[in-house]
Each structure stands twice: as structure tokens, then as C-alpha cells.
Amino acid sequence: MADAPADVKKLSFERAIEELETIVKRLEDGKVPLEESVAIYERGEALKRRCEDLLRQAEARVDKITTDASGQASGTEPLDVQ
Fold it and tell me: Fewer CB atoms inside 10 Å of the end CB: C or N, the chain?
């Protein structure tokens, strides 16, 4: 995310997705001037990348529960995120 604005890099997932939803609504409304549309679209792309990065980080931390032959939880192992 090297090309994302510094403020986007600091946003939580919830705040980034909220702002992204606002941008999508504004663009779908069609009442934004062309130049502003391009600018907010670019910000939307940075927000989308931020959300994707945060989701990948969260997935990497999720553990998969392993079970024994009787179906009882026997431990955890790293989630294979492929």
C-alpha cells in the first residue's frame, strides 16, 4: 500500500469500509463532477486495498481447530489461507 495516502494507512477496517461505502454511494448517485469523481474513485481504490490488507492480516491470525477421532477439539494449527 505504498501509494495510499498516510491517513488511509492508519484507518481501522471499520472506518475504511464506512468511507468506501460513502464513496460508492456518491459515485452511484451520479451527481459528482467528473474531476471530483476521479479523485474520490482513487481514494476508494486506496481504501479497498487497505481493507483487503487488513482482512489478509486477520486471516493469517486465525487458527483452525483440530479434532481427534471422537470429534473433540484437540488443539489448533495455523489456518492455511490459499
Answer: C
47 neighbors 19 (Cβ within 8 angstroms) = yes
Q: Cα separation of 29 and 22, whole Å?
A: 11
| SS3 state at 49 | helix
Residue with cell 481504501: 47
Q: Point out which residues pair with 73 in neighbouring strands.
A: 67
First to last CA, the chain: 21
Sign of the dihedral defined by the CA atoms of residues 5, 6, 9, 15, in that order: negative
